Amino acid sequence: MQSNFTRRKFNRLAVGAGVGLAGAPVFTAHDRITAKFSGVTVGAQSYSFRDRPLDEAIAAMKQIRIGSCELWSGHTEPLRELRRDREKLRAFRLETPLSHYEEIGESFHAAGIELNAFNYSFRDDFTDEEITRGFEMAKAMGAGALTASGTVSVAGRVNGHAQRYGMKVGMHNHSRIRENEYATPDDFAAASKGNSHIAVNLDIGHFIAAGFDPVDYIKRHHAQIVALHIKDRKRDQGENTPFGEGDTPIREVLALLRDNSYDIPANIEYEYKGGNTVEEVQKCFNYCKRALAS
Q1: Cα separation, 107 vs 105, whole angstroms
Q2: Which of 56, 92, 148, 283 is the most buried (most CB within 10 A)?
């Protein structure tokens, strides 16, 4: 199966991101978008831009001036075509050449955006080859780590691959408390026990909605966290809200990172019901910058 991201499509993407017509990057040090504010990396989970394809998502981040990204795997593969056919999705991942992912990494580089992580969600039905491929994709794109909405039971298999590739995998939590899913501190502890390369991708909004304190957790486990998802939610499985209108201590979390020099990317994940995506993510970004400056 061939990738549906053709060279023509990549050239269109790259030109929009700042690549010359001959395909040579025109990226310079002056083009890099600022990612750190008061010492804290503020980025975005590209899932925030799930309403548009990758080239438009990159353009939106560049417009907002977001300089760091956790790339959602849905932006690298034709999810709408394959989400109902697991075997075709697996075949796409295994058979699409790594040059496809190298080109994606180049497009981010040309836009002045760093890839702090690649979100590739390992589940129990992943073959060993499919697990390995996730690390190959991340390496090809130049991502610093992997994140995953995975299961607790797959952590041991993933850990072996992570060790070989020298990359940490941050497991992502949701608010639902279910067997074999990540929601509680105990779930993270169970996955990391004996698995040196299994880490945490803490979603502070989901964590507060599930009844836990993200500030306390970060204080105690910051060394195990590869990235945060920044969103606002109400307690007791409450809804997502615009930043500052829920119960999630976003300001306190950002201040904790700043004041303790914790090198953990804080990736905005826009999920509340809003209007124009770019305008809403801009509001979230501005909120975080103001919080860090206060």
Answers
A1: 5
A2: 148
Q: What are the C-alpha distances in Å from 141 to residues 70, 137, 294?
A: 12, 6, 35
Q: Among residues 224, 181, 180, 179, which one has the least CA distance to residue 206?
A: 181
Q: What is the CA radius of gyration of the chain?
A: 18
Strand partners, 119: 72, 147
Beta bridge partners of 70: 45, 117
* Residue owning tokens 């995506």: 277
pTM above 0.85, yes or no: yes
> Which sign, positive or negative, has the C-alpha torsion 63, 66, 72, 77?
positive
Quick one: CA torsion of 68, 69, 70, 71, rounded to 10 degrees? -150
Which tens digits make up the pLDDT trace of 84-114?
899 999 999 999 999 999 999 999 999 999 9
Burial class (CB in 10 A: 0-12, 13-18, 19+), 184: middle
Question: Are 112 and 25 a contacting pair, CB within 8 Å?
Answer: no
The two three-digit tokens of residue 276, written as one number? 């124009």
